[in-house]
């Protein structure tokens, strides 16, 4: 990242907590790096970003985020290469998307210089929290919340933008089982499905809990009006392999424009794998599974990276997807990680030095 002239207020921790963390046994999103950033929006302006020790913050119970869920977030990762250099993967995409999400949620856009100067400072202070080695990363969570006090149902006039980071390994440590949604929906036309609005995720927890009670891990959401087309899963976008072709749903009002999704589409093109970005019909996928033509399903997201789906339930029937030789999922995951850990050339200029 280019250094910027943005002034930050920095208060460093007196003693790092890093020695209390067992990096060989991380639970996703449970341990946090020493520092965090926050920046308030007051009187129509973003103030000076502050970097402080990670810890609790105080808000009044009437803060609007608690009542109306006016909040958006991002997920991004930093990786350390074998020489100890830290790299961010396509951070511009996350910056652009958080502002796109903010706009839809009537939250003021965050200045680019503030975003990148804060990331750079955080990664310098917390560089030891980014571990070397396959699978290790620092998961970075920028987010914005509405902080004006008052329960009137209107957009806030105060906000807090924050960045926290947690050392991460796999989000899923084994292949997952999914269910194709028949009754519940994730997002509707004209709604906020394309945004990383906090409520998009909270609203999925109940149907996902029901799926988990049946021994499944995730839901693949179908379109809200007909439930005939597969869209995305709760924590990631989703790809299907029929024969040698890869199929994924196009992004729209309802589907998140995932950074991992678009990177895989590009990698597929680079490797002469035919990718069809088109509506994915449930009937077609179920039929393909019956005929043995459905070779793979895998999810793709920043937290999840790439995860194999080992089977799915639809309409009370379970379909197994046995592991195959040379799966695309494994190939795309390792191609992506080779770039992220700076092990190979980065032909698209996706990685950015921290
Ligand atoms: C991410 O992959 O970064 C996400 O935001 C998904 C989240 C539900 C963990």
Order of helical and strand elements: EEEEHEEEHHEEEHHEEEEHEEHEEEHE
Bound molecules: 2-OXO-4-methylpentanoic acid
Number of strands: 20
According to CATH, what is the topology of the largest domain?
D-amino Acid Aminotransferase, Chain A, domain 2
Largest sheet: 10 strands, mixed
Calculate the mean pLDDT score and round it: 97
Task: Compute the separation of the termini in Å.
Answer: 5 Å
Helix content: 10-25%
Descriptive report:
The chain has 354 residues and is an alpha+beta fold. It folds into 2 domains: 9-171, Aminotransferase class 4, branched-chain amino acid transferase, N-terminal domain (D-amino Acid Aminotransferase, Chain A, domain 1, 2-Layer Sandwich); 176-339, D-amino Acid Aminotransferase, subunit A, domain 2 (D-amino Acid Aminotransferase, Chain A, domain 2), CATH 3.20.10. It has 8 helices and 20 strands. 41% of the residues are buried. The mean pLDDT is 97. The protein binds 2-OXO-4-methylpentanoic acid. 2-OXO-4-methylpentanoic acid binds next to loops. Its EC number is 2.6.1.42. This is Branched-chain-amino-acid aminotransferase.
């Amino acid at each position: 990242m280019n250094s910027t002239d943005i002034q930050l207020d920095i208060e460093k921790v007196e003693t790092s907590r890093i020695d209390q963390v067992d990096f060989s046994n991380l639970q996703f999103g449970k341990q946090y790096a020493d520092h965090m950033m926050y920046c308030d929006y007051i009187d129509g302006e973003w103030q000076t970003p502050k970097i402080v020790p990670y810890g609790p913050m105080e808000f009044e119970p009437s803060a609007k985020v608690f009542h109306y869920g006016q909040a958006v977030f991002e997920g991004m990762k930093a990786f350390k290469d074998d020489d100890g250099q830290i790299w961010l993967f396509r951070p511009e995409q996350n910056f652009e998307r958080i502002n796109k999400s903010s706009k839809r949620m009537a939250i003021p856009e965050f200045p680019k210089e503030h975003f990148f100067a804060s990331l750079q400072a955080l990664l310098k202070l917390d560089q030891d929290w980014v571990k070397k080695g396959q699978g290790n990363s620092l998961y970075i969570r920028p987010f914005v919340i509405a902080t004006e006090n008052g329960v009137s149902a209107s957009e806030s006039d105060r906000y807090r933008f924050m960045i926290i980071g947690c050392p991460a390994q796999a989000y899923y440590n084994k292949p997952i089982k999914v269910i194709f949604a028949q009754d519940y929906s994730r997002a509707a036309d004209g709604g906020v499905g394309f945004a990383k609005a906090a409520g998009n995720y909270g609203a999925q927890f109940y149907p996902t809990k029901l799926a988990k009670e049946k021994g499944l891990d995730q839901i693949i959401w179908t379109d809200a009006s007909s439930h005939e087309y597969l869209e995305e899963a709760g924590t990631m976008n989703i790809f299907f392999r029929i024969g040698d072709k890869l199929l994924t749903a196009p992004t729209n009002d309802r589907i998140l424009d995932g950074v991992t999704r678009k990177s895989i589409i590009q990698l597929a093109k680079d490797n002469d794998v035919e990718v069809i970005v088109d509506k994915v019909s449930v009937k077609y996928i179920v039929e393909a599974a019956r005929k043995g033509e459905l070779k793979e399903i895998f999810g793709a997201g920043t937290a999840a990276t790439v995860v194999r789906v080992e089977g799915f339930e639809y309409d009370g029937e379970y379909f197994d997807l046995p592991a195959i030789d040379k799966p695309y999922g494994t190939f795309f995951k390792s191609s992506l990680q080779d770039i992220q850990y700076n092990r190979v050339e980065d032909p698209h200029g996706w990685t950015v030095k921290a």
